[in-house]
Design a protein that fits this description.
The protein has 113 residues and is mainly alpha-helical. It is built from 7 helices and no strands.
Length: 113
């Protein structure tokens, strides 16, 4: 228990590492559903719906979603990461995969990065 408390109060901690521990696929998906409902008025799309085709989710929406993902994860994505996401991500499942890959990358960084 003390080790966990020390981790939480460590001033040099990497917030992304803590998210890796706390956010499983279901939690990420639920947060995305909240974002889609509140920001885009899309209520509970199927995880495999082609968002642009079935819900009119356009490139402006994708940029707004990336801003929400940055807020959710407490990170800033590079322009290259944003371009990659806008070009490759079309479904909720693909967005969750993308976020998991971001978290995995952060998890593999050195502790004081």
């Amino acid at each position: 228990m003390l080790g966990l408390l020390e981790k939480v109060t460590d001033k040099t901690r990497n917030p992304m590492r803590e998210l890796v521990i706390m956010m499983n696929r279901e939690a990420i998906q639920n947060e995305l559903y909240r974002i889609f409902y509140e920001q885009f008025e899309i209520e509970a799309p199927d995880p495999d719906d082609d968002l642009p085709e079935e819900h009119g989710f356009d490139s402006i929406d994708a940029i707004e979603l990336l801003v929400e993902i940055e807020k959710m994860l407490g990170i800033t994505l590079s322009q290259e990461q944003k371009k990659e996401a806008v070009l490759k991500v079309r479904t909720i499942n693909q967005i969750v995969d993308y976020i998991e890959a971001l978290l995995q990358t952060a998890h593999s960084e050195p502790a004081n990065a």
